[in-house]
Amino acid sequence: MQIQFHGHSCIQVTDGAHSVIIDPYLTGNPAAVASPEDIHVQHVILTHGHFDHITDAAAVAKQNDASIIAVEELAIHMAKQGLRTEAMHVGGEWKFNFGHVHLTQAVHTSSISTSDGEVLYAGVPAGVVLQMGDVTLYHAGDTGLFGDMKWIGERFDIDVAFLPIGGRFTMGPKDALTAAEWLKARCVVPIHFDTFPPIRQDGAAFVSDLARLGIQGRCLTPGEMITI
After folding, report:
1. 152: which DSSP letter?
2. Range(s) of the domain holding residue 197
3. What does each C-alpha distance from 122 to 50, 66, 126, 147, 188 come to in angstroms?
4. Which H or E run includes 43?
5. Of 18, 1, 27, whose CA–CA distance to 10 is shortest?
6. Which helix (H) or strand (E) holds 62?
7. What span, in angstroms and rounded, lies between the C-alpha atoms of 49 and 120?
8. Would the pTM of this model clear 0.85, i.e. be above it?
């Protein structure tokens, strides 16, 4: 399995013929090195409706004839754009042809801002446990620390966890360290930081702090790929 980090909270997971992207935000992302046209996937998973997670969802889905997997209200919004969707809800799980998806809680909000300034409800935010092949990934989405992360770590044998560390809009490094201890993932990758000034953080320092707790971490640069 190959995992490619596209910057901010966007990751692409490829296992054989199957490729899935989570929270595609490339257009307007100052850290991104890829464009929507570079992305070749069969499925798009969205954690919530904020612009820095869905900006390129429709473009990627259309050019690949890919389906969008999201919480029902967000899926309905995407379906109105003529896209194929798979609606789910937090706590729900489903086996797709590429693997197994379980949506978890995330402590955040979810909305869509229209071009005329209207803010639309986009359902609840979610985290994603993605099992493809023999690998289990956890993408926390945008979230603060919450106690059920302990349960997620008990329920799933997580190989890689992607945790936001930006602070201000999500948990910061200190709470993310606690989350990493609770999740017991074999590797932790920081996301949702450094894209904009309000979420400046030191990813390398976070990884060093993980090491002091006996936890392996990787701070990926946009475009970087790892093999599991």
Report:
1. H
2. 2-227
3. 9, 20, 11, 24, 28
4. strand 43-45
5. 27
6. helix 57-64
7. 9
8. yes
The Cα 10–Cα 91 span in angstroms is: 22
- How far is residue 58's CA from residue 215's CA, in Å, rounded to a whole number? 36
d(CA 49, CA 1): 28
pLDDT tens digits, one per residue of 67-98: 999 999 999 999 999 999 999 999 999 999 99
3-state secondary structure 91-131: CCEEEECCEEEEEECCCCCCEEECCCCCEEECCCCCEEEEE
Q: 29-54: per-residue pLDDT in tens?
A: 999 999 999 999 999 999 999 999 99
User: Residue 131: which CATH number?
Assistant: 3.60.15.10
Q: How many domains does the chain have?
A: 1
Q: What whole-number distance in Å separates Cα of residue 44 and Cα of residue 6? A: 14
CA-closest candidate to residue 142, choices 173, 186, 174, 105:
105
State the number of CA atoms in the 13 A half-sphere of 133 facing the CB. Answer: 15
